[in-house]
């Protein structure tokens, strides 16, 4: 009572709830499932007969439930079940009545299947299979049978789904029997008339010219809605048939044209193959020329070490000694023996080696600018810059990987001139997830930011972080937004970027990217 006063109701007391529960249950019990249950029940009955007093066996065709004499006879279940199976398997299938709508849908489906077949034809099996696989055709057959009984398609009755299943099963049984014929896979048809002659053995088609749409003058809105839907469906079916016929006609015309120009097409194909071979050979030669030019430029940029320098390298890499020994030092940067050994083949470069190499590049850039007064300076950030800017490795997973300008706000004080917008280039070494080294470069005068990855990653999120840093830096130092923001370009890793061929040379590639780019190579 309390729940009803509040406007609520138990789901089991709701008639709509019960209806939809039974509706889904009935829909799931197909004809095949019910027959399976009958077979199981009969098998159990044969194994567990009910002991009864023997009486004269009286046979009869009515159901045993309506014949007390037969029902009381021993073995009546087995006899009735055997007779029932005989009627199921041996009773001939009567021709099914096909409505006009279903007839036109079948025709459209078959014409479409014929147009897709080789040689503008298909086997009887393919035509029947196309009808079976057409959901619209099966639904139309069920709807036609319901209309013949005066029942609307959406009229809600308790056993509507079960009746739909039975009607589908009847049509499927007829089509299966036609597919099971030995000649179904060999006989080919090329028109609807040939298919119709085959189907008429089991289906009763209407005369299309004699069937007309009956006018409904009743004021029932449901009947008017049915008529409107039928008219729309009829128009769609006619359009479908027209499109199928036009497609068949176009294919016929194209086949005729292709047969006439077959030799011309063969000659064109041969000429195209020759041109493709020539283009491939030209591209191969061009690629070889580019590689040779790149090797020549590399030989000019990278000089060979002198014997004295090679001896120093061998001592630094392989000579014994404490790991904490400082091998090289420049201002605040230094490299220990342990870090130097990461330069051996197959090893990953350490942070200290890469930072020391970038410090050497910064000194070289300073010397070049002293020699050429028109040259603008470049700045080399350490990898910690990007780690701080993106909060990488933060203990809070929500903050990790997010942009934070406050962490690097003071880093520009170490920039030459303390103004990044007067620089030529800013080079950012990036340690991606502590497993891969890449390089990003901001060309301040060209207003572009480019990503260099020896594995080919695009790195767009890093480019966006750097762009945001440039905007925040301009706003913080100049007290105004970046005026030419729309002119800046973000360029991901391009296809011609050199690629590493192993899993440990990414640090070397990052150093070489910074080396060549800082020299405007």
From TrEMBL:
One of its GO terms (cellular component) is nucleus. Residues 271-305 form a coiled coil. InterPro entries: Papain-like_cys_pep_sf, Peptidase_C48_C. One of its GO terms (biological process) is protein desumoylation. Transmembrane segments: none annotated. PROSITE patterns: ULP_PROTEASE. The keyword Protease applies. SUPFAM superfamilies: Cysteine proteinases. Pfam families: Peptidase_C48. Residues 52-73 are annotated as: Disordered. Keywords: Coiled coil, Hydrolase, Protease, Thiol protease. One of its GO terms (molecular function) is deSUMOylase activity. Residues 333-517 form the Ubiquitin-like protease family profile domain. Belongs to the peptidase C48 family. PANTHER family: SENTRIN/SUMO-SPECIFIC PROTEASE (PTHR12606), UBIQUITIN-LIKE-SPECIFIC PROTEASE 1A (PTHR12606:SF1). This is Ubiquitin-like protease family profile domain-containing protein. It comes from Amphora coffeiformis.
